[in-house]
Amino acid sequence: MTAARRRRSAVGTTDRAPRQLPGSACEACQKRKVRCKNSYTPIQRFRFVLTKTPGDRKSPCGTCKDGGLVCEINTQRRPRGPKKGELKNLRSQVGVCLNRVVALERRLSLDPTEEALTLATQFSEAPPVPEMPSASSASDQDFSQFPSPSCQRRPSWESDIHIAMSPMTPSSLPMGFSTFQFPPSPQSPPRCAFVDDLMRADLDQLYFDRVHPNVPIFSQSRYFARSRQISMMDGPNYLLCLQYAMWTLAMSFSSQFESSRDLFYKETRHMLENLDLHEDDMNTVRVEQVQAWLLLAFYEFARCNYRRAWITAGRAFRLVQLARLHEVDISENAAECDDAVSMEEKRRTFWVAYYLDRLLCIRNRRPLTLIEEMICTRLPSSDLAFQGGSPVQERFLEEVFASGDHSLLSPLAESAILLTIFGRAVSQCQAQRMQPTYASASLEFWMRHEWVKNTLSSSLNSLMVNHPVISAAEPMLFFSTMMAHAVKIYMCQIVESTSHEESCRPNVVECQNQAMHAAREIARLVKAHEHIPYFKAHIFLPLAIFLAASRLMAHPNRVVENMQALTPPGSSCYQGMEVKDGINAEFQCCMNALRSMQSFNNLAREYLLVLEPQESFSLTAFQGAFLCE
C-alpha cells in the first residue's frame, strides 16, 4: 500500500461514522440478547468523531421504540469475574465439602443398611457451609464467630472426618486453631455390618474346621446359641468382640478372605481396647474378654510382628490371673457356676493360655508368667464329651505326674503335660545359672535333668500307646508329638550351655545323640504328612521344625564323630555317606515345610531368615568333613 493510499485511508476513517456505535447496550436488548440499535442525534455523532467519547442518549433505541419498551442503560455495571480473595474462599469450601463426601462414602461402604442411608440423608440435608470472609478482611475478623463441629448436629460416625481431611492453609480453615476441638471419640467403633448371613456361616464353619482343632476352647452348640443372642444386642460387647476375634483368626487360615482380614483385625482390637478403657471394676473380668485377647494373640503371631503378639499374649495372661482361671476348681469358685460346659470352657481357656506361655519361653527363654505351683484347675476333658454337653472331670496336673498314668487324656491335656515338663526344664536352667559352679550344684543339676528326661520319655511313650497312629489330620495331637521331640532338642541345648566340665562329657554326648534322633523323627513326621495342607497346622508348628532343622544343620564334625562311634570297625565308608545324604534330605524337608508356611505364618518366615544364611555354609562344611575322613 502506498503512502498516499494510507493517508487517504486514515482521513476516511476519521471522517465517516463508526460501524458500531459506542456505549453499552440497554437492559432490554441485553436480556433479549439482540443488537442494540443506539439512537444518536447528529450533534452526538459529530462530538464522538471529534472527542472519541460517547454522550448520553436521550431517545430510545430502535428495538425499544418498536416494542414500546422503556430503554434504560446501566452505566455503573459491576466488573466481571470474582472479587479479590473470593476464589481462595471458594476453594476452601469445596475442600470441606469434599472431605464430608469422602467420610460419607466411607460410612456407606462399611454400613450399607437402612440406618446408614437415613444418616446419609440427614447428612446431605445439613445446612451449607457458611460463607467465608474475603482474604482482605480475614485478618480483621475473629474466626470464633463461625460454628464449630461440636455445635452442629452431626452423625455419630462423623468423628472419622478429621482423619481423612486434607491439609489446608490457616486462611482457608472454617475455624481458628485456637477454638478447634477434635470431636469426642465414640464409645464404640462402627460395626462391620456388611457381614451377611452367608458370610457369617462361612466364617463360623471355617473357624471350627481349621482353628478349633488347634485352639479347642469352645463348645459349638453353646457358641451358636450365643451367636443368635449377639445379633439381637445393641452396641459392642465382649461377646461381639469374641466373635470378631474368632472370625479374624479364621481368616488367617484361608486365602478367600485375605482382603478383609486386616479390616476385621483392626475392628476387633479397636472394640476390645475401647471396652477395656470404659471398664471401671478391676475385679470383674469376663471369660469372653480373656478368650478374645488370646485369639487375637494367636492371630498376631501368625500375621503380625512377634513383639506386638508377645505383648498381647502378656495382656491375656494377666487377664487370666485377674479372672482367677488358674483356680477354677477351688470349692468356693466352683459353687459360683453350676453349668458344666461353662466350667469346662474356663478350664480350656486357662490351659490354652498355659501352654502358650510355655511356647513363648522356648524361643528366647523368657521367665514364665503362669506358675505351675499355683494351678488349682483340672485338666481339660475329652473333646467328644465336651462337645456332647457332658464333660467329665479330669484329674489335676500333679495327680497325673504322681501316678504316671496318662491314659484317656485329651490332646490338649497331653500338650499341657509335655509343655509342663518343658517348663520344669526351663526352671532347671535358670536355677543352674543362679547357683555357683560347685560339685554339689552340678550333681543336683544332673539329678533334676535325669528326672525331667525320664518324665518326658514316660509321657511320650504313653502318648504313643494311647494314639498308635499319629496323623496331621488331628492337628493338636500331631503338634503334641512334635513338641515332645522338640523338648528333647531344647534340653540338649540347655545341657550344652551349662555343662562345661570334662566329667560331664559322656552325659552331654548322650543328650546330643538323643537330640539328633528327635530332630530326625520330626523331619520324618514332616515328610510323611507333607501332602496335608499346612492351613490346618498349628500356628507354632514352625517352632518344632526350626529346632529340628537347627540340630540337623549344626556341628557337622560332631555328627561325623557320633556316626563313627556307632559304626563297627571295618565297615565301609559308603555307609557314612548314605547317612549324610539322609540327614541332608531331612534338613531340606524341614526347610521346604517352612517355605510352604511362610506365606501365611510369620513365625515360619522369621525362622527361615535365621536358617537360610547358614544353610549353604553348613552344607559345605558338612561335605568337607566327610571328604576329610
TrEMBL record:
Record-linked SUPFAM superfamilies: Zn2/Cys6 DNA-binding domain
GO molecular function (one): DNA binding
Key words, A-Z: DNA-binding, Metal-binding, Nucleus, Transcription, Transcription regulation
Stretches assigned to the Xylanolytic transcriptional activator regulatory domain: 309-386
Cell location: Nucleus
GO cellular component, one term: nucleus
Chief localization: nucleus
Ranges where the record places region Disordered: 1-20, 122-155
Gene Ontology biological process terms from the UniProt entry: DNA-templated transcription
InterPro entries: TF_fung (IPR050815), XnlR_reg_dom (IPR007219), Zn2-C6_fun-type_DNA-bd_sf (IPR036864)
Source organism superkingdom: Eukaryota
Biased composition (Low complexity): 133-148
Protein name: Podospora anserina S mat+ genomic DNA chromosome 3, supercontig 2
Species for this entry: Podospora anserina (strain S / ATCC MYA-4624 / DSM 980 / FGSC 10383)
